[in-house]
Amino acid sequence: MWAGARIRTWRGRSGYDKMDLYTRGTLHSMVWLSSVCQAALSVTRPVRESGAPAALIAGTVLLAVAQGVCSVPLVPRALKSYMGHGPVGRRLPALAAVLLLANTAGLLGLGAYAGPGVFPELPLALTAAAAPCTTFLVLVAPWWASSTVVTVVAAGAGGGVALAGGSGGFALGTALGMCVTCCFVAISVRLSAWCLDVTAKLRDAQGVKTRLAVAEERLRFGRDMHDVLGRNLAVIALKSELAVELAQRGKPTALDQMTEVQHLARASQQEIREVVRGYREADLATELLGAQGVLRAAGIECAVQGDGGGLPAPVRSALGWAVREAATNVLRHGDPQRCAIRLEASPDGVRLTVENDGAAPGDAVAASGGSGLHGLRERLAAVGGSLEAGPSGDGLFHLTAAVPLPMPRNAGPSSPER
C-alpha cells in the first residue's frame, strides 16, 4: 500500500515538479555517493595496516561526511542561484572549500603512510573528495572559473601525490583522472540544472499564455457590451435631455420623446440578454475550438476530429456543454500530455468521445460523482442523451456522450412490396 500511495503521489505531480524532484535527488545522490565512496576507501585494510594513525583515518572519514552534510543546504541554494532566485552567500561555500582542502590533505597523509603501491585507490579517493565542491561550484561560477579551480585542485592533488612518494606517472595520472572525472560531473550537473531551468520557464510561459487567453476573452466580452450599449445609451441620454427641455417649455412632444426612450431602453435590455445568452450558451463548434486552444495553451497536445455541422441546435448545445466540461476535467485532474476529441455522427445518433492520458487513479472523477458531470447528465437527458465517464486503465480517462438524433418528418416505415 505504501508503494502504491507513493506511485499515485508521483503521478499526481506536475511535469515541472517531477523534473525538480528528479534533479535535486540526482544532485544529492551524486554528492553522498562520492562522500560514502571516499570514506569507504579511507578505511580499507591496506590503509589500516599501513601504520597510519587512527586519528588521521577517523578524521578523514569525518571530513568526508562533513562535506556531504555541508552540501545538503548548499546544493539547493546553488540550484536556486543558477535559476536566478537569489544568491548563495559566502559562508557555506567558504566552509565547503575548507573541508575540501582538509579532506585532500588527510587523504594525502594516508597515501604518505601507506605508499602508492599499498594505496592504489588514492586517485579515486581524491576525485571523490573533490566531487561535492564541483557539484555546487559549476552552478554558481562561470565555466572558465570553475574549470580553473578544478584544474588547480587536480594539479595540487597530483603534486601532493608526488610528495607522498608516488612516481611521476602516478602523480600525472592522478591529476588527469581528477580533471576528467570532475569535468564529467560538471557537465552532468550543469545539463540537469539547465533542463530544470528550461522546464520552469516553459511552465511560466504556459501560465502567462493561459492568463492572456482569459484576459482576451474578457476584453472581447467587454467590447461586445460596449458596442451594444454605447450607441443606445448615448441616444437615450440625448432624448431624455430633449424631453426635459420640451417638458419645461410645456410642449406635448415631450411625451413622444419619453416614449422613444422607453422603447430604446427595452431594446437595449433585449440586446444585453442576447449578448449574455450568446456568452453563456455553449455552441459546439465554438467549444471545440476553445477547448483545443485552452488545452494547447496549458501544454497539452489536443487533436479534434469532427465539427458537428448540420446537427440540431439542442444537440449542438448539449454536446458543447459536454466538450466544455470534459476540457475542464482534463485541466483539473491528473497530469495529461495528450487529449483526443472525436465527434462521430450516424443516421440514428451522434457520439462525442474525449480521451486523455495522465489520469491519476486516486484523483480521477468517478462516473457518478462530481457536480459538473451531474449537471452534464441532466443537460444530455433533456435531449435524450447519456453520459459515461471514468478511468479506463493505463492512466487513461474516457468521457463519452451519446445523443440520439430525431428522425426526419418525411421519414416513416417503408411500405411493403407488392
Report on the structure:
It is a single chain. By secondary structure, the chain is an alpha+beta fold. The chain has 3 domains: 205 residues, no CATH class; 74 residues, Single alpha-helices involved in coiled-coils or other helix-helix interfaces (Up-down Bundle), CATH 1.20.5; 121 residues, Histidine kinase-like ATPase, C-terminal domain (Heat Shock Protein 90). 70% of the residues lie in helices and 9% in strands. The chain contains 12 helices and 5 strands. Strands 1-2-3-5-4 form a 5-stranded mixed sheet. A hairpin with a 2-residue loop joins strand 4 and strand 5.
Percent of residues in helices: 55-70%
Radius of gyration: 36 Å
Along the chain, the helix and strand elements come as: HHHHHHHHHHEHEEHEE
User: Number of DSSP strands?
Assistant: 5
Write the SSE topology.
Blueprint lengths: L1 H11 L2 H28 L2 H4 L5 H29 L8 H24 L7 H19 L2 H21 L4 H81 L4 H28 L3 H14 L3 E5 L7 H20 L5 E9 L2 E8 L14 H12 L3 E8 L2 E9 L14
Parallel strand pairs: 1-2
Antiparallel strand pairs: 2-3, 3-5, 4-5
Helix pairs in contact: 2-4, 2-6, 2-8, 4-5, 4-6, 5-6, 5-7, 6-7, 6-8, 7-8, 8-9, 10-11, 11-12
Main attributes?
418 residues; alpha+beta; Single alpha-helices involved in coiled-coils or other helix-helix interfaces; Heat Shock Protein 90; 3 domains; 70% helix; 9% strand; disordered C terminus
